[in-house]
Protein backbone atom coordinates (compact mmCIF):
# COMPACT_ATOMS: atom_id res chain seq x y z
CA UNK A 1 0.00 0.00 0.00
CA UNK A 2 1.25 3.46 -0.94
CA UNK A 3 0.22 6.51 1.09
CA UNK A 4 -2.18 8.67 -0.94
CA UNK A 5 -0.60 11.84 0.44
CA UNK A 6 3.16 11.33 0.41
CA UNK A 7 3.60 8.07 -1.50
CA UNK A 8 5.28 6.44 1.49
CA UNK A 9 5.27 2.67 1.90
CA UNK A 10 6.20 2.43 5.58
CA UNK A 11 3.14 2.02 7.79
CA UNK A 12 2.85 1.32 11.51
CA UNK A 13 -0.05 -0.46 13.20
CA UNK A 14 -2.10 2.20 15.03
CA UNK A 15 -4.88 -0.06 16.30
CA UNK A 16 -7.61 -2.51 15.36
CA UNK A 17 -11.39 -2.46 15.48
CA UNK A 18 -13.12 -5.74 14.66
CA UNK A 19 -11.84 -7.20 11.40
CA UNK A 20 -10.13 -3.95 10.39
CA UNK A 21 -6.69 -2.63 11.22
CA UNK A 22 -5.77 1.05 11.21
CA UNK A 23 -2.35 1.59 9.67
CA UNK A 24 -0.54 4.93 9.97
CA UNK A 25 2.00 6.30 7.51
CA UNK A 26 5.26 6.91 9.35
CA UNK A 27 6.15 9.78 7.02
CA UNK A 28 3.04 12.00 7.03
CA UNK A 29 0.75 10.55 9.72
CA UNK A 30 -2.23 9.59 7.55
CA UNK A 31 -4.21 6.63 8.87
CA UNK A 32 -5.77 4.09 6.49
CA UNK A 33 -8.27 1.30 7.07
CA UNK A 34 -6.99 -2.15 6.08
CA UNK A 35 -8.23 -4.14 4.31
CA UNK A 36 -9.96 -1.49 2.22
CA UNK A 37 -13.60 -2.45 1.53
CA UNK A 38 -14.71 -3.13 -2.03
CA UNK A 39 -17.01 -0.84 -4.00
CA UNK A 40 -19.87 -3.29 -3.37
CA UNK A 41 -19.23 -3.22 0.38
CA UNK A 42 -19.20 0.58 0.37
CA UNK A 43 -22.49 0.66 -1.54
CA UNK A 44 -24.01 -1.70 1.03
CA UNK A 45 -22.80 0.52 3.86
CA UNK A 46 -24.47 3.52 2.25
CA UNK A 47 -27.73 1.60 1.77
CA UNK A 48 -27.70 0.66 5.44
CA UNK A 49 -27.11 4.22 6.66
CA UNK A 50 -29.80 6.19 8.45
CA UNK A 51 -32.61 7.54 6.29
CA UNK A 52 -34.04 11.03 6.39
CA UNK A 53 -36.51 10.53 9.25
CA UNK A 54 -33.90 8.85 11.47
CA UNK A 55 -31.32 11.55 10.75
CA UNK A 56 -33.86 14.29 11.44
CA UNK A 57 -34.58 12.70 14.84
CA UNK A 58 -30.87 12.74 15.68
CA UNK A 59 -30.65 16.43 14.78
CA UNK A 60 -33.78 17.20 16.80
CA UNK A 61 -32.28 15.57 19.90
CA UNK A 62 -29.26 17.92 19.69
CA UNK A 63 -30.90 20.92 18.06
CA UNK A 64 -29.48 23.74 20.18
CA UNK A 65 -25.96 22.30 20.07
CA UNK A 66 -26.01 21.79 16.30
CA UNK A 67 -27.56 25.19 15.58
CA UNK A 68 -24.82 26.81 17.69
CA UNK A 69 -22.16 24.87 15.80
CA UNK A 70 -23.51 25.92 12.42
CA UNK A 71 -23.78 29.56 13.50
CA UNK A 72 -20.12 29.55 14.54
CA UNK A 73 -19.02 27.87 11.29
CA UNK A 74 -21.02 30.34 9.20
CA UNK A 75 -19.45 33.24 11.08
CA UNK A 76 -15.99 31.90 10.21
CA UNK A 77 -17.00 31.34 6.58
CA UNK A 78 -18.29 34.92 6.35
CA UNK A 79 -14.86 36.23 7.32
CA UNK A 80 -13.70 34.88 3.95
CA UNK A 81 -16.91 34.98 1.89
CA UNK A 82 -19.81 37.04 3.26
CA UNK A 83 -22.27 35.62 0.72
CA UNK A 84 -22.45 33.91 -2.67
CA UNK A 85 -23.02 30.38 -3.96
CA UNK A 86 -22.38 27.64 -1.38
CA UNK A 87 -22.20 23.96 -2.31
CA UNK A 88 -22.49 21.43 0.54
CA UNK A 89 -21.02 18.07 -0.50
CA UNK A 90 -22.40 15.17 1.55
CA UNK A 91 -25.11 17.45 2.93
CA UNK A 92 -27.23 14.74 4.59
CA UNK A 93 -30.76 16.15 5.09
CA UNK A 94 -29.55 19.71 4.52
CA UNK A 95 -29.52 21.21 8.01
CA UNK A 96 -26.32 23.17 7.37
CA UNK A 97 -27.63 24.24 3.95
CA UNK A 98 -30.76 25.57 5.62
CA UNK A 99 -28.66 27.59 8.09
CA UNK A 100 -26.47 28.92 5.27
CA UNK A 101 -29.54 29.90 3.23
CA UNK A 102 -30.92 31.76 6.25
CA UNK A 103 -27.49 33.44 6.48
CA UNK A 104 -27.70 34.86 2.95
CA UNK A 105 -26.05 32.19 0.79
CA UNK A 106 -27.50 30.64 -2.37
CA UNK A 107 -27.22 26.95 -1.48
CA UNK A 108 -26.98 23.67 -3.38
CA UNK A 109 -26.13 20.22 -2.03
CA UNK A 110 -25.20 16.72 -3.12
CA UNK A 111 -25.96 13.62 -1.06
CA UNK A 112 -25.50 9.94 -1.98
CA UNK A 113 -28.14 8.77 0.52
CA UNK A 114 -31.31 9.16 -1.55
CA UNK A 115 -33.59 9.13 1.51
CA UNK A 116 -31.72 11.97 3.18
CA UNK A 117 -31.61 13.99 -0.04
CA UNK A 118 -35.36 13.55 -0.54
CA UNK A 119 -36.05 14.59 3.06
CA UNK A 120 -34.16 17.87 2.57
CA UNK A 121 -35.92 18.62 -0.68
CA UNK A 122 -39.41 17.82 0.62
CA UNK A 123 -39.18 19.36 4.10
CA UNK A 124 -36.88 22.37 3.58
CA UNK A 125 -37.31 23.14 -0.12
CA UNK A 126 -33.59 22.67 -0.74
CA UNK A 127 -31.84 21.93 -4.03
CA UNK A 128 -30.18 18.61 -3.11
CA UNK A 129 -28.98 16.32 -5.88
CA UNK A 130 -28.99 12.57 -5.14
CA UNK A 131 -25.54 12.09 -6.60
CA UNK A 132 -21.82 12.32 -6.04
CA UNK A 133 -20.07 15.59 -6.84
CA UNK A 134 -18.79 14.08 -10.07
CA UNK A 135 -22.22 12.72 -10.96
CA UNK A 136 -23.92 16.07 -10.35
CA UNK A 137 -21.66 17.59 -13.05
CA UNK A 138 -21.76 21.19 -11.86
CA UNK A 139 -20.25 23.72 -14.29
CA UNK A 140 -16.70 24.81 -13.50
CA UNK A 141 -16.14 27.93 -11.44
CA UNK A 142 -19.68 28.31 -10.09
CA UNK A 143 -19.19 28.04 -6.29
CA UNK A 144 -17.86 30.66 -3.90
CA UNK A 145 -17.79 28.16 -1.01
CA UNK A 146 -17.71 24.36 -0.89
CA UNK A 147 -18.16 22.54 2.42
CA UNK A 148 -17.05 18.97 3.20
CA UNK A 149 -18.30 18.28 6.71
CA UNK A 150 -17.39 14.72 7.82
CA UNK A 151 -17.07 13.53 4.22
CA UNK A 152 -13.41 13.20 3.23
CA UNK A 153 -12.74 10.25 5.53
CA UNK A 154 -15.46 8.22 3.74
CA UNK A 155 -14.14 8.71 0.20
CA UNK A 156 -12.06 6.04 -1.57
CA UNK A 157 -10.11 8.71 -3.49
CA UNK A 158 -9.89 11.98 -1.53
CA UNK A 159 -7.52 13.49 -4.11
CA UNK A 160 -10.07 13.02 -6.90
CA UNK A 161 -12.82 14.58 -4.76
CA UNK A 162 -10.63 17.59 -3.98
CA UNK A 163 -9.84 17.95 -7.67
CA UNK A 164 -13.57 18.06 -8.39
CA UNK A 165 -14.11 20.60 -5.62
CA UNK A 166 -11.32 22.79 -6.98
CA UNK A 167 -12.86 22.69 -10.45
CA UNK A 168 -16.23 23.73 -9.04
CA UNK A 169 -14.83 26.67 -7.06
CA UNK A 170 -14.36 30.16 -8.47
CA UNK A 171 -10.83 31.66 -8.36
CA UNK A 172 -10.08 32.41 -4.70
CA UNK A 173 -13.04 30.27 -3.61
CA UNK A 174 -13.21 28.81 -0.10
CA UNK A 175 -13.15 25.14 0.87
CA UNK A 176 -14.22 24.14 4.40
CA UNK A 177 -13.29 20.64 5.59
CA UNK A 178 -14.13 18.89 8.85
CA UNK A 179 -12.83 15.42 9.71
CA UNK A 180 -12.03 13.36 12.84
CA UNK A 181 -8.52 13.84 14.23
CA UNK A 182 -6.46 10.65 14.60
CA UNK A 183 -3.95 12.66 16.62
CA UNK A 184 -6.57 13.91 19.10
CA UNK A 185 -6.49 13.49 22.85
CA UNK A 186 -9.70 11.46 22.60
CA UNK A 187 -8.23 9.09 19.99
CA UNK A 188 -5.02 8.64 21.98
CA UNK A 189 -6.96 8.00 25.19
CA UNK A 190 -9.56 5.61 23.79
CA UNK A 191 -7.55 3.91 20.97
CA UNK A 192 -9.69 1.07 19.54
CA UNK A 193 -12.68 2.28 21.59
CA UNK A 194 -12.65 5.73 19.97
CA UNK A 195 -16.20 6.30 18.72
CA UNK A 196 -15.10 8.21 15.62
CA UNK A 197 -12.83 5.46 14.28
CA UNK A 198 -15.66 3.43 12.65
CA UNK A 199 -13.93 1.29 10.00
CA UNK A 200 -14.76 0.40 7.27
CA UNK A 201 -17.13 3.38 7.01
CA UNK A 202 -14.11 5.63 7.60
CA UNK A 203 -11.50 4.70 5.03
CA UNK A 204 -8.94 7.33 6.04
CA UNK A 205 -8.03 8.88 9.37
CA UNK A 206 -6.46 12.32 9.21
CA UNK A 207 -4.14 14.24 11.48
CA UNK A 208 -3.93 18.04 11.14
CA UNK A 209 -0.55 17.78 9.40
CA UNK A 210 -1.71 15.09 6.97
CA UNK A 211 -4.88 17.00 6.08
CA UNK A 212 -2.96 20.23 5.46
CA UNK A 213 -0.51 18.39 3.23
CA UNK A 214 -3.34 16.77 1.25
CA UNK A 215 -5.02 20.13 0.68
CA UNK A 216 -1.82 21.92 -0.27
CA UNK A 217 -0.93 19.14 -2.71
CA UNK A 218 -4.41 19.55 -4.19
CA UNK A 219 -4.05 23.24 -5.04
CA UNK A 220 -5.33 24.91 -1.87
CA UNK A 221 -3.77 27.33 0.60
CA UNK A 222 -4.75 26.66 4.20
CA UNK A 223 -5.85 29.94 5.75
CA UNK A 224 -7.10 28.69 9.12
CA UNK A 225 -7.06 25.42 11.05
CA UNK A 226 -8.63 24.61 14.38
CA UNK A 227 -9.38 21.46 16.34
CA UNK A 228 -12.34 21.00 18.66
CA UNK A 229 -15.06 18.55 19.69
CA UNK A 230 -18.42 18.76 21.48
CA UNK A 231 -18.03 18.06 25.20
CA UNK A 232 -21.02 15.75 24.97
CA UNK A 233 -19.26 13.52 22.43
CA UNK A 234 -16.06 13.43 24.48
CA UNK A 235 -17.82 12.41 27.68
CA UNK A 236 -20.13 10.00 25.87
CA UNK A 237 -17.13 8.25 24.33
CA UNK A 238 -15.60 7.69 27.75
CA UNK A 239 -18.90 6.48 29.22
CA UNK A 240 -19.63 3.98 26.44
CA UNK A 241 -16.09 2.57 26.36
CA UNK A 242 -15.98 1.21 29.90
CA UNK A 243 -17.96 -1.99 30.55
CA UNK A 244 -20.55 -1.87 33.29
CA UNK A 245 -19.79 -5.14 35.12
CA UNK A 246 -21.81 -5.43 38.26
CA UNK A 247 -22.78 -2.68 40.69
CA UNK A 248 -19.19 -1.55 41.22
CA UNK A 249 -18.52 -1.38 37.47
CA UNK A 250 -21.64 0.66 36.82
CA UNK A 251 -20.83 3.02 39.70
CA UNK A 252 -17.25 3.52 38.44
CA UNK A 253 -18.44 4.21 34.90
CA UNK A 254 -20.99 6.72 36.16
CA UNK A 255 -18.37 8.45 38.31
CA UNK A 256 -15.95 8.60 35.39
CA UNK A 257 -18.63 10.04 33.14
CA UNK A 258 -19.60 12.71 35.71
CA UNK A 259 -15.94 13.67 36.21
CA UNK A 260 -15.34 14.01 32.47
CA UNK A 261 -18.60 15.93 32.06
CA UNK A 262 -17.47 18.43 34.68
CA UNK A 263 -13.85 18.75 33.56
CA UNK A 264 -14.06 18.50 29.76
CA UNK A 265 -15.55 21.97 29.09
CA UNK A 266 -12.89 23.51 31.37
CA UNK A 267 -9.79 21.82 29.95
CA UNK A 268 -10.85 21.03 26.37
CA UNK A 269 -9.65 24.34 24.96
CA UNK A 270 -6.16 23.64 26.22
CA UNK A 271 -5.79 20.54 24.09
CA UNK A 272 -7.67 22.16 21.21
CA UNK A 273 -4.94 24.80 21.00
CA UNK A 274 -2.36 22.00 20.83
CA UNK A 275 -4.13 20.44 17.84
CA UNK A 276 -5.57 17.59 19.93
CA UNK A 277 -9.30 18.25 19.55
CA UNK A 278 -11.35 15.35 18.24
CA UNK A 279 -12.32 17.18 15.02
CA UNK A 280 -10.14 19.05 12.53
CA UNK A 281 -11.75 22.07 10.88
CA UNK A 282 -9.87 23.69 7.99
CA UNK A 283 -10.58 26.80 5.90
CA UNK A 284 -8.60 26.68 2.65
CA UNK A 285 -8.52 29.00 -0.36
CA UNK A 286 -8.24 27.81 -3.96
CA UNK A 287 -4.86 28.78 -5.37
CA UNK A 288 -4.91 30.29 -8.85
Q: Would you give an account of this structure?
A:
The chain has 288 residues and is an alpha/beta fold. The protein is 44% helix and 24% strand. It has eleven helices and eleven strands. A seven-stranded mixed β-sheet has the order 6-5-4-7-8-11-10, sandwiched between helices. Strand 2 and strand 3 form a beta hairpin. Helix 10 runs antiparallel to helix 11. It is globular, with a radius of gyration of 19 Å. The mean pLDDT is 91.
Keywords:
288 residues; 24% strand; globular; 44% helix; alpha/beta; 11 helices
Q: Please, how many helices?
A: 11
- Taking Cα atoms only, what radius of gyration do you get, to the nearest Å? 19 Å
Silhouette: globular
Task: Note the beta-strand portion.
Answer: 15-25%
Mean pLDDT: 91
Strand order of the largest sheet: 6-5-4-7-8-11-10
Please bin the fraction of helical residues. 40-55%
Structural class: alpha/beta
Tell me the series of helices and strands, N- to C-terminal.
Answer: EEEHHHEHEHEHEHEHEHEHHE
Beta strands, count? 11
Poorly predicted ranges (pLDDT <50, ≥5 residues)? none
**Ends apart, CA distance between termini:** 32 Å
Largest sheet: 7 strands, mixed
Summarize the SSE layout with pairings.
Elements: E1 11-17, E2 20-25, E3 31-34, H1 39-47, H2 52-61, H3 63-80, E4 84-89, H4 95-102, E5 105-110, H5 114-124, E6 128-129, H6 133-136, E7 143-149, H7 158-168, E8 169-180, H8 185-190, E9 204-205, H9 208-217, E10 220-228, H10 231-241, H11 246-273, E11 279-286
Parallel strand pairs: 4-5, 4-7, 5-6, 7-8
Antiparallel strand pairs: 1-2, 2-3, 3-9, 8-11, 10-11
Amino acid sequence: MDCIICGGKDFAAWGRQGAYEILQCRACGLGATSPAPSAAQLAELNRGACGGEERAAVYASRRSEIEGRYAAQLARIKRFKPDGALLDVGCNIGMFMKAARDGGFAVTGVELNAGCAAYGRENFGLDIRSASLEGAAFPAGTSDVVTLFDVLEHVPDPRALLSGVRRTLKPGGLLVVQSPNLDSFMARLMKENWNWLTPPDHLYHFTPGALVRLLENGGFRVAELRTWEPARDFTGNIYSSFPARGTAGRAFRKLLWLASLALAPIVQRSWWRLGRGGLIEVYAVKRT
